[in-house]
Amino acid sequence: MTFVSILSIFVLACFVGYYVVWSVTPALHTPLMAVTNAISSVIIVGALVASAAAGVPGAKWLGLTAVVLASVNIFGGFAVTERMLAMYKKKER
Question: CA–CA separation, 52 vs 88, rounded Å?
């Protein structure tokens, strides 16, 4: 695949992701965050596999960057999900 085709797929994925996430109702936000965390974990596995098999030294750094950014996304997603679930718990008197 050429760079232009890969870039166009990336840009289209960004547009689709933006419209999908911002059109979700608040009631579905927590399940969507759980799915996003699962997708990010797959990204981490893919980045580890791709950086281990890469023959170019720069690819290892890009793989490390992908792992770090996906890890931040996962932990942030869990924090947001925990905070949203805490809003629905009954308060103790």
Answer: 43
* pLDDT tens string 4-19: 877 787 788 778 877 7
Question: Quick check: helix, strand or coil at residue 1?
Answer: coil
CA 23 to chain centre: 17
Report the alpha-carbon distance of residue 74 to residue 41 in Å, rounded: 7
- Residue 56 is encoded by which pair of tokens? 């170019």
C-beta of residue 63 within 8 angstroms of C-beta of residue 44? no
The DSSP 8-state label assigned to residue 75 in this structure reads H
pTM of the shown model: 0.57
Of 37, 66, 32, whose CA–CA distance to 50 is shortest? 66
Cα separations in angstroms, 87 against 34, 50, 80: 17, 40, 11
Q: What angle do CA 14, 70, 28 make, to 5 degrees?
A: 65
